[in-house]
Specification:
The complex is a heterodimer of chains A (211) and B (664). Chain A has helices spanning 2-13, 52-61, 75-96, 99-129, 166-189, 197-210; strands spanning 23-29, 32-40, 45-47, 150-154, 157-163. With 211 residues, chain A is of the alpha+beta class. Chain A has a 5-stranded antiparallel β-sheet, with helices on one face. Chain B is mostly beta strands and 664 residues long. In chain B, a hairpin with a 6-residue loop joins strand 1 (55-60) and strand 2 (67-72). The chains are: A alpha+beta (211), B mainly beta (664). Chain A binds chain B through residues 49-51, 54-55, 58, 62, 136-137, and chain B through 521, 555-557, 581-583, 629-631.
């Protein structure tokens, strides 16, 4: 029973992605003392202020980068359905208590995660390379793709790209669901000789981590 | 100039003494040369590059009509806030939005003489909301918002001449004072000047501040003395306002002699809480007057000038207990109330001694009816019965006093060019320092409130004469300010810096009170300007008769539209330029060749309007004046001007985008 709860909590944890951004790109330059922060959610692109995206677009237009317009990025429309669907699926699988289904769910999430990162990379590549040939500032051989992970100088800016708070929920999903599978496995292995106290104790130890 | 008499006096002292050092007059010899500062002193005022000062100081601009914003302890100038004078740099008073701010009953008055800034207070403590400042020449009071550092309201003071005892506040900013330095006929009339003593009057004006909006609450008719300065009661004396005066002689000519005859002039104590009761009883006279109240609306980003026609006037004779006169030696200038509210210091500028009145004794004298006489129906209290004590021979020409909140007072002496520190309770002199030269006002941040900032750490002296202090700049020299550390027993000079205009009074506060609430941009979506262009696709040109409105947008790095044709000689062209930026510190400027006013300087999210009346045929450029971006130099455009009656169609363009309309 406890492992089911852990799995379900893990599966529902991905709903946190509706709340917190998955990734952050920070642009640093001397005349931007606070940095310019762009937050990538599963359903939108945000900034420190409502006008951050406009400010980034103004800077980008000198090098001929296309305007970053959330409306023109279809992933931001259908990603929320995928995440919600995964959470629902996780709930159903969780209730079933079927370890194979659990494993399948984690595997799907891993594949989706990998695809998501690859898709993100393609967008970064597109914005960084697909430049207006009539841009005011053209530098031979220069492209402006921000790094997927890490920091990279782009003209006067240094771009930093790292997972942000939302990714903690994704990580929590993997950890909790993985743990549930592991515990389920263990308890079924030990089933013939198991006393009821042993798993209970373990779950107790886990409780603080869950709260 | 209020101090011209003392400048003359100071020069006479120099001439008579045959010496140069007027700082020596009747005082101990100062040991601080002020010219050499040790390395450690330099460190005390050094704010490293990129770091912030701990205080804002706001100095009045005097005859510049503006307010200077400085940092302390560095003395660095950050901004000049345009208030009473047109400022071509910012377009203030030139653009269509701010022109109404400078309207008066006399018409457009594009200059004034600003003397006394005062920060708003709650419970007698600085609250960081607003600052008020007087215009002396064409009597006015302005309100400045401390989160935008812009002038938001100006109210004209009717029935007044020379609004000098202003803009001082009551301890919860219930009222802001205004007053008359140059008494005039009330109501104004074509009178013989020689009838001054009989036909002229002063007024004490109380500007109410309900809902953060200035209105003339009421006026009290005053004897025709020269009402000079004021300060509100605080703590126990809250409910009273004190006004100093000179010219109890009621002279109307050669005042330097004729107004300097009597041993004592007066501080008036006005019980404004009682005035409110008299108002409620209907004792006020409704007087027909003519004045303006100009208000800035942040949502439309425009000022409107409202005409006002009545004012309520109380006459002391009809309102017993409303006003008492406190005899004070001789021609007092400043009137300053200590943080406890009990001690009222009158800087008798022609007196050898300095009187300190007691509020408790004043109330006692009123109760006992210890009156010497009455003047214009106002009881004059007996000097000896209200006097707390005398600061004996502190210096020459005492003017203004501020307090540190530790029981000490600091008084400026114009003629002997020094500041004297003394103990309020005992009037004992504790220390003195020279100033360079001829100090007028001084300022301790919060030093006229109930709670000086940080218990009084810094003091700024503002001086009228500079002479050799800085690199000379021809005949006209900067005025100077000196910063002293007053946290110890001895006052120590730690910095000397030039100022904008002629600072009279100043105010200061801890930067932490307001620095985080500074507005960075105006929200474009909240811009309710009637001629806003909230996106580039709406940029256009419209003609109605000979009035042409250009709905223009500015964003890095272009103006839209940037090619305009179909304008004719004789047109009135309004450029309504909206800055579409929503990023911090990205203003755009706008200048039109041949425009007879000034530039626009438009903050992000703001709309400003420049009126241009083309007088010649040709093609004329316009451009952005504020170096906004890497392609700022490219931010330009042209207007083609055709002859009167030409049929060149109205059209506009930006890049491949074009628009147009058939010329009517």
């Amino acid at each position: 029973m406890k492992t089911k709860v852990i799995f379900i909590i893990g599966a529902l944890a991905i709903l946190g992605l509706f709340w917190k951004p998955l990734w952050r790109i920070t642009l640093d330059a001397p005349q931007y003392p606070d940095g310019v922060n762009m937050y990538i959610y599963i359903n939108k692109i945000g900034g420190d202020t409502p006008s951050t995206l406009q400010n980034i677009n103004i800077l980008n237009h000198y090098i001929g980068m296309k305007y970053i317009e959330p409306e023109s990025i279809p992933e931001l429309t259908y990603f929320p359905y995928i995440i919600a669907g995964m959470a629902a699926l996780g709930l159903v699988f969780g209730l079933s208590g079927n370890k194979k289904l659990w494993f399948t769910w984690v595997a799907i999430l891993a594949i989706l995660g990998a695809l998501g990162i690859y898709d993100y990379y393609l967008w970064l590549y597109d914005y960084g390379h697909n430049l207006d040939p009539n841009a005011a500032i053209k530098i031979e051989g220069m492209t402006y793709q921000p790094p997927l992970l890490g920091s990279k100088p782009l003209l006067n800016f240094v771009a930093h790209s790292y997972p942000h708070t939302g990714s903690i929920f994704l990580l929590a999903s993997f950890v909790l669901c993985g743990l549930a599978i592991f515990m389920q496995k263990k308890s079924s292995d030990e089933l013939p000789v198991a006393t009821k106290e042993a798993p209970k104790q373990k779950e107790k130890e886990l409780e603080p981590a869950l709260t | 100039m209020k101090n011209s008499i003392f400048k003359i006096a100071a020069f006479m002292v120099i001439a008579v003494g045959g010496g140069y050092l007027l700082t020596q007059c009747g005082t101990s010899s100062p040991d601080n040369s002020g010219g050499v500062m040790s390395g450690s002193t330099a460190e005390e005022v050094f704010v490293p590059p990129g770091e912030h000062d701990t205080y804002y100081a706001f100095t009045s601009g005097g005859y510049s009509g503006q307010v200077g914003v400085y940092g302390l302890p560095s003395g660095r100038l950050f901004r000049v806030i345009p208030v009473f004078s047109q400022d071509a740099e910012k377009g203030y008073g030139y653009n269509e939005e701010t022109k109404p701010m400078l309207e008066t009953s006399f018409g457009f008055v594009p200059w004034d003489d600003s003397h006394h800034p005062e920060l708003s207070q709650t419970n007698g403590e600085i609250d960081g909301r607003f600052m008020f400042i007087n215009g002396n020449n064409t009597p006015r009071v302005a309100k400045i918002n401390l989160s935008t550092m812009e002038t938001e309201e100006i109210i004209e003071i009717p029935n007044a001449g020379g609004n000098h005892a202003s803009a001082f506040i009551t301890e919860n900013t219930e009222y802001i004072t205004a007053s008359t330095r140059f008494s005039v006929p009330v109501p104004q009339a074509d009178e013989k000047i020689a009838s001054y003593a009989d036909k002229f009057n002063g007024v004490w004006t109380f500007i109410s501040f309900e809902n953060e909006d200035m209105e003339i609450g009421f006026q009290v008719l005053a004897p025709p003395f020269n009402w000079d300065l004021a300060h509100g009661g605080k703590g126990k004396s809250h409910g009273w306002m004190f006004f100093s005066s000179y010219n109890a002689e009621k002279a109307n000519t050669l005042l330097e002699k004729n107004a300097s005859q009597l041993d004592k002039d007066f501080i008036a104590a006005v019980n404004w809480k009682l005035a409110e009761e008299y108002l409620a009883q209907g004792k006020a006279h409704d007087m027909q007057v003519d004045f303006r109240n100009n208000e800035w609306d942040e949502s439309t980003q425009m000022a409107t000038s409202h005409e006002r026609n009545t004012v309520k006037v109380l006459i002391p004779e009809e309102c017993p207990g409303l006003v008492y006169l406190l005899p004070t030696p001789k021609s007092p200038h400043g009137v300053d109330v200590d943080p406890t509210g009990n001690f009222i210091v009158g800087g008798g500028k022609l007196s050898a001694d300095m009187a300190v009145h007691s509020f408790d004794k004043m109330l006692q004298a009123i109760e006992n009816e210890d009156f010497e006489t009455t003047i214009d129906g106002i009881p004059v209290l007996k000097y000896d019965n209200i006097l707390q004590g005398i600061v004996k021979q502190p210096g020459l020409g005492p003017l203004h006093t501020e307090f540190d909140g530790r029981g000490n007072a600091y008084t400026t002496f114009f003629i002997s060019s020094e500041i004297v520190k003394w103990k309020v309770e005992t009037q004992e002199i504790l220390d003195r320092v020279p100033t360079y030269y001829s100090v007028g006002h001084l300022m301790i941040p919060g030093g006229d409130s109930r709670k000086p900032e940080e218990g009084g750490k810094y003091m700024v002296a503002m001086n009228k004469i500079t002479k050799d202090r800085y690199l000379p700049t021809g005949p006209e020299l900067a005025h100077s300010a000196q910063l002293y550390d007053i946290s110890g027993d001895k006052m120590r000079l730690i910095l000397d810096f030039p100022t904008v205009g002629e600072p009279h009074y100043a105010q200061g506060l801890l930067a932490s009170r307001i620095k985080d609430k500074q507005v960075k941009t105006y929200l474009l979506e909240e811009n309710k300007h009637p001629h806003v262009t909230d996106r580039e696709s709406r940029a256009r040109v419209e003609r109605d008769g000979n009035v042409v409105r250009v709905y223009m947008t500015a964003i890095r790095s272009h103006l839209a539209p940037d090619n305009i044709e179909g304008i004719r000689v004789g047109d009135e062209v309004y450029f309504h330029v909206t800055n579409l930026e929503q990023d911090w510190d990205v203003p755009h400027g706008f200048a039109m060749m041949g425009a007879t006013n000034a530039e626009l300087l438009i903050m992000p999210g703001q709309t400003e309007t420049l009126l241009w009346k083309p007088t010649k045929e040709g093609v004329f450029p316009f451009y952005c004046t504020d170096f906004c971006s890497a392609l700022h130099q490219e931010m330009q455009g042209y207007v083609r001007v055709s002859p009167r009656g030409s049929n060149v169609p109205l059209s506009w363009a930006l890049g491949d985008e074009t628009g147009g309309a058939t010329a009517p």
